[in-house]
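A quick aside before the break. I want you to see a complete sequence-to-structure record at least once, exactly as it would be stored in a machine-readable document. Don't worry about memorizing anything.
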Amino acid sequence: MAREAAPKVQTIDPAAIEMIKRAEELGYSTVFSRAAKMPACPIGAEGACCQICNMGPCRLVPTKSNPDPVGVCGATRATVAARNMARHIAAGTAAHSDHGRDLIFTLQAVAEGASQGYELRDLAKLNTVAGYFGVKTDGKKPEQIAGEIAALAIGDMARQKGTLTYTKRAPKKRQEIWAQLGILPRGVDREVVDTLHRTHMGDDQDADHLMLGSLRTALADGWGGSMMATDLSDILFGTPSPLVTKVNLGVLKSDEVNIVIHGHEPTLSEMIVRVVNEPELIELAKSKGAKGVALCGVCCTANETLMRQGVPSAGNDLNQELAIITGAVEAMVVDVQCIMQSLSDLSTKFHTKLITTSPKVMISGATHMEFDEHHALDIARQIVRVAIENYPNRKQTEIPTHLSDLVPGFSHEYIRYMMGGVLRGSFRPLNDAVMTGRLRGVAGVVGCNNPRVTHDQAHFDIVKEFLKNDVLVVQTGCGALANAKYGLLVGEAAMEYAGPGLREVCEAIGIPPVLHMGSCVDNTRILTVLTEMASEGGLGDDISDIPGVGIAPEWMSEKALAIGAYFAASGVYVLFGVNSPVENSDEVTKIMSEGWEKIVGGKMEFVPDPMEIVRRSLAHIDAKRAALKLPAYDPAKFGKSGDWRMRELLKQPLEERVNALYGMPVAAE
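That is the input. The structure line, written in tokens, reads:
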């Protein structure tokens, strides 16, 4: 079924609405206007187009005269859809795992004393990761430990035989399932190459076998490259813990030099954070007429610096052009992934310098200042200087005033700590809350933005419904930034949106009802939380037993498909919004849903309607509760304790309050 070119309502973000109107007045295109003019190809969108060889492209669209078409080579719709999906997953795995590879090289440079500006900030995490790799720490300097970890991590990237080290972190039952199916990943690169080879013309032509191979490739991302990326980022830049910061275009400053960092890898952005307030650079900014230098981010680079240093975010992926349209951005500094080529032309219409920094990414018309960890601070200072020197070229600006508070930084280490303290850190209280029914279940709502649907709407609507139904939500990436804009990532949101049981949990621990767990590569933190919950006891002995779901409401990236596949392979029910890239093949659709559920306990489904996603999710959570013989969800049992109860009591006369609290009348004066 062909999708509309663009939704009638483009976004629910008031700051974005202002900038879209400004772009229209100025006659400049944005991702929103281009989506309206460019209908999605219905053939490619449904997985019915094969471009694997030059005998095509072949359009496998059923007609009355040819209800079950095949390609020139005889490839069926199932084979074509499965090959396309497998290649998407391989590309997503390559992108996220390459992120991990660059962090390994940075760690290696720190170990060798060959980096500039980096240090080992979390030695406890260093020792924990050393344990995963079997590196002995006694009597060794941190740099030596880091060097051994880096060497072994590089080995996992390139491993040809055997098994990725981090798969041993999964529940034992889960590892056994993977071993029985033959999908324990070997090396990250090995699995990506395997998928690309088997999807070449004339190779693997069994849809079930192709999709099973794609699960192994996805696992190399989730339990390999991405998980290593998260751990090494924590070692180098610090393990996140909660702090308060702000989000949306209102973070841009009218009287300061604005630098926007955009992309995914924290190696450069962390160095910019470090130098941006150096006295020499601040004096240079003042000499140009600015009061100082303001740093903010968009997309997942924003999440990386947001959750560690509190750097404010100008918004998620679809805000990137809108930040430039304010006219207030001196430099947008990008590295890899989710960067729109339109930024180059758009920046010339204002005074903004678009600066590319990765050796993998160059954009025609942009200024290229290649980053290298051996000269990290020097390059960061050069970039900040370019932005400052550009400030006098600023013309008319229009900065929206919309911005919201959020509390990011809920690493799995902090979640364990907040429920039990330093000496008794545990996931027991979380499991108990699910077992007693205070929490109906848990949900990870993650992923991208997509202009083919209303920007941020599905993220907000789905999470709001989960909170009302006592489902604790964790978020990463652009999804986390979406709901941060609308006030869901602060403690007060529990009083407005949470059901009675979830509200009690939030009050007791002192947390928001939606926990920000990092960038999109940090979805592996969610895997770790699920593993800890399975290991803690009371909710089964595998991830597939837990009453939980994973949702990607506005997916657009191949990385999202890789993430969904590794969660499904880990035992999670995963639902995607927008559309299905395999809609043209009933066979592949059933393989990813019914077939995968039978063999790995998880599944992937594509459901365009957000409320149907909620319905299926809650039904799944309730079914898992029933399978564990937990009490049926009953919100009426909770909600009369803690701060909520105190607020209710404060509305009553003093005598009634004391009697309600202590069961005795007020003493006469």
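Two observations worth writing down. Residues 92 and 558 are 5 Å apart (CA to CA). DSSP finds 27 helices and 16 strands in the chain. We'll return to this after the break.
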